[in-house]
Give the backbone structure.
Amino acid sequence: MKKILVVGGGIVGITSAYFAKNNENKVILAELSDSLGGLLKSTCNEYGCFDYGTHIATKTGVKELDDFLFSDFNENNSYKFNIGRSGNFYKGKLSDISPFVNTNHLDISDYQQGCSELELANNKVGENLKETLINRYGDTFYQCIFKDFIYKNFGCDAQYLANECLPFFDMPRILAFDKELSRQKKLNKVLDEKIGFHGFTAGVDKFYPKKGGIGHWIKNLEAKLLNLNIDIKTKSSITQIEANSAGFLVHINDEILQVDELVWTLSSGLLNRFIDTGFSGIKPSFRKMAIYDFVFEKPLKTDSYYINVYDSHLLSNRITCYQNLQSTSEFYACSVEVLNEDYFDFESKIKYIEQELIKIGITEEGSKYSQCRIVKEGFPSLTVDTSSYLKKINSFYEENFSNITLLGRSSDKGFFMSELLVSAYHEVKKEHR
């Protein structure tokens, strides 16, 4: 029998713990906070439920994995759809057709110059995010769109950021040309990778719970872990890890555990504090993040599930419209994510953010309820130096510890939730089949 410790109780840790468990293995899942889920949490009050991070659960295409993740979803308790309607706001205009920034809203001279550069540009990965964006879209679109937008969200110039930041905020694609010309351009493989459709296409099945927000999904998955007798330890702080011939001696709160294997779903930089690799570097910095929730008397004036706000002079970043996720409800609510500096007074800006919603065109009236929630975890600004440091650490553990499995975003095994879950499924299954 093996004793396996999974560190981190987010969706990747939950999935890892489930598939690490078999008749012979004892699995322990350790989470620092008082509940599982990471940012897949919801807070509820008399006005409704409001999520923190990811809102939509998306199938992965791996049957056994999807059976675990989604077997509890049905028509009675969840909304099911396969088209992710989303929009963007740029240059004072709302486009309910795509999450990608709509370059058609630029001044005509900048737009024409940008499209010319776009067609000539390559998709080569540069030394940093700035180089990669210019290689991908050309200098005009970089200067007009991405330069200030990136500074607004990451708090630094794109030349200091790692290329792993590209998938954030739907930056890998843009809207250009018109609907029909885009379809023709996408026949070119190079252009297809960086321009989007002017409309929605059907994809994989997606789900959103009818009650309890996305956090209800986590509660269902937690019940499956408990049914397998997986030992879930919340409020668990790891203070020491010692590698020995039998595996690892792990100090958790006042308890000392001898385990055979570690499945680490947190940043590998944290693991380096306990099992020294000999590498030193700069840990990721985090932007302070808040979520503003608003409930209105009348429906929002958009069909989008979420809207990316690319105008850099607005505080609003990403807007989630609950009424459209919950298609049969009268929950006329939205959440607005805002990133800023540590000293920024988020609580004082509720009315300001509400006015931005009116300016964007989502509503014409004031809210009947509003709140500001500070996200404890913050938002990572991954620099070039930090990315290089984490890759060295990852390589060290993979080369020297066959009984450590690194998963999650810092493992460099994916970005999107479905990618990370598929990676966790295959990695854990491979180790314990």
Notes: The longest helix spans residues 384-400. The chain is about 30% helix and 25% strand. The mean pLDDT is 93.
